[in-house]
């Protein structure tokens, strides 16, 4: 989450001095997160002085707030009943809680209802609150949060109204412009909301547990994940052919194809000039219709043309809307206008469309009657509601002029005044459901018309005197076949029952038995995530599936790097879930992304928590190991009911997650089943566990499943474990095996794959990568915290008997606590003979040299000789210095930040040649 809410820039001290309330952070949780499994907006609010001002102490605050937002009366809040929140207001609640409810109510008032929220105090920061509330559209939610803060501040006494973190407060002559801001919010809702057609399809998909992802700010939607995804834009689907769409857009070609297939269509011809229109119209005979050859939504259509003047007007209106300048002049079918919806070759719904009209009252003119009709709350602008507001334009004026009327005419009481000849809903028409009345002949004609054009979803415009009688007897037929038909006339007709037209479209895209989700495997933990993910990917590749992997080194599709850099957050996960080639998503999931944005998915099929160790404490409100465990437990909390949670039985904080874990639990353990009564009971009751048991070269890995014991592989047969010496890779192998068992990979496949997994740069970059040259050995390992360095130290000590000296190049990110940095130095001092402490150019807020100084303090506290400690700023420079200091028989361990650059530097290094590193400094003892 980015600091400061809406673009204002001021330091914290200034905010505290000049304001009573400050917005210090804001952001969007797009998936399950630390505080809730629902997507939410988070606003961090520092109340400052207002911490001492609960709502009941602020004069007239509650009454003035309710006058502006009467809907707050319906909020149940924690009391769970209507009026609960108002009771809290009158008894006294803090303003962060008030902002939460105001933001929810503002969204509802703007037409984007949201009902869930929570406000929590920030640990260790009195007066600071995380205000969280649900949203439908994140842009609307963020704006609602801002307006909520503005509104609450405006109701405070004058001397308490200050707010920072906002670029401005909308005031005019000293008064807060609430109505103006609410209107802004409503406009944003209208601009961002899905139309009725797309909304119906999205809602149906969600009812079927199909993942929904909005891909743009309009109506492009991805349904499903990975290889199973389908895309829609309104009622156009990924199956809608371009040729079919183009054909439907060419009305002359459509009519030709239908006519040649025996479908009744009106005779007509395409023209480009008014003279041609008149000449062809006289040949065809009145009444006539003019329409753009490539138009849609009834724009530019004139029907019921009875003379040359009307024909010229109709031609001009049509050509103004025609992209290709061609106008279709055709015979007018007499009868009522119907829209027949055909999906996948089946007639799904029928609606009779009635043109916009008003009924006279003998007092009001036509313009006033239209205004009254437009007051119907079901009418809105464009496609935002089930009906569209009627607009009086030149087409309306021309049409009513045929009857000798103008917009200022006053029709007698009871007189029906049609305003248009066309019956499109987009011009204010209404719809009557006729699904149960259509004659089988008419349904078959419409069905065949859609299939002849080739549309999977088609709106067939059908004109006939009576839809219940066959047009083969009454006359009439198909006048258009439309791609991307609107669904709202069927979803919510003006008369008759609504039809569930979204269901057959979603069923066509996802027929019974076809999945919409790819398996999601999410892995978290303080250490080992990358190696476990890469081991698992290596095994899954043996099954022949396409694996999408996110990791600290990038996003991979199988073995192809498609995006370099740290890719352990939700953005990278979404990249995998959107890739149409991926069969399985394997997602390394770090703490940072969980806290910043939440998960990129609503649920996982397999979730694994490897361990919880001190790292990143003191950041984003995570102060203790228990806090960190609560963050990481989100991975198993969101496992699907039929999924599997993988947990480390040897880690106490991870073991405690079992009661919150979803699905079935598989434990893994280095210590073996005999050391843990909990694990023994689990195995005895038929539960699954993957454990290491005693044996040569590190032991053997055993699977327990339903009281069955099966040996999977000897530890020594997994090259990455260095014959069991790299015990942390034994633990990583246990976790990877448990994941693969949960994914139903055959044991023989697991055994064969792990026997080929080595801790090389190519297979596992930055994790125990070994390079032997120049008479000494170099290990590159991304040990970036105390637990990771301790585990690496065990390997170094095990290898120590083969080497003369051990040399370490050590650092730690600057956003760790001072004690964590000193601990890293103490551990390094206990492992290595010669130390090079370094720090990156980006010290994450610390002064230059401070990180190295704290590392040195820790090493000296352990008792490491000061003359054998060197401090060098810069990763490349420190690496070059250590390589230059290496002698025959030494072991050099480098813990890099930029793994790829470091490995290249190591492999390209030549003794005595520093040409690659021209700025490498002299090694200076501190």
Automatic annotation (TrEMBL):
Keyword annotations for this protein? ATP-binding, Ligase, Nucleotide-binding
Subunit arrangement?
A: Homodimer.
Family recorded in the similarity comment: In the C-terminal section; belongs to the MurCDEF family.
Top-rank taxon of the source lineage equals Bacteria
Where are the membrane-spanning stretches? none
Main EC class the enzyme belongs to: ligase
The ATP-grasp domain sits at 255-510
Enzyme Commission numbers on file: 6.3.2.29, 6.3.2.30
What is catalyzed by this enzyme? Answer: [L-4-(L-arginin-2-N-yl)aspartate](n)-L-aspartate + L-arginine + ATP = [L-4-(L-arginin-2-N-yl)aspartate](n+1) + ADP + phosphate + H(+); [L-4-(L-arginin-2-N-yl)aspartate](n) + L-aspartate + ATP = [L-4-(L-arginin-2-N-yl)aspartate](n)-L-aspartate + ADP + phosphate + H(+)
Extract the signal peptide range. Answer: none
Key word ATP-binding present in the record?
yes
- GO MF terms held by the record: cyanophycin synthetase activity (L-arginine-adding); cyanophycin synthetase activity (L-aspartate-adding)
Pfam families per the UniProt record, alphabetical: Cyanophycin_syn, Mur_ligase_C, Mur_ligase_M, RimK
Provide the function of this protein. Answer: Catalyzes the ATP-dependent polymerization of arginine and aspartate to multi-L-arginyl-poly-L-aspartic acid (cyanophycin; a water-insoluble reserve polymer).
Q: Where do the coiled-coil regions begin and end? A: none
Could you confirm whether the keyword Lipoprotein appears in this record? no
Q: Tell me what this protein is called.
A: Cyanophycin synthetase
Cross-referenced InterPro entries: ATP-grasp (IPR011761), ATP-grasp_RimK-type (IPR013651), ATP_grasp_subdomain_1 (IPR013815), Cya_phycin_syn (IPR011810), Cyanophycin_syn_N (IPR044019), Folylpolyglutamate_synth_CS (IPR018109), Mur-like_cat_sf (IPR036565), Mur_ligase_C (IPR004101)
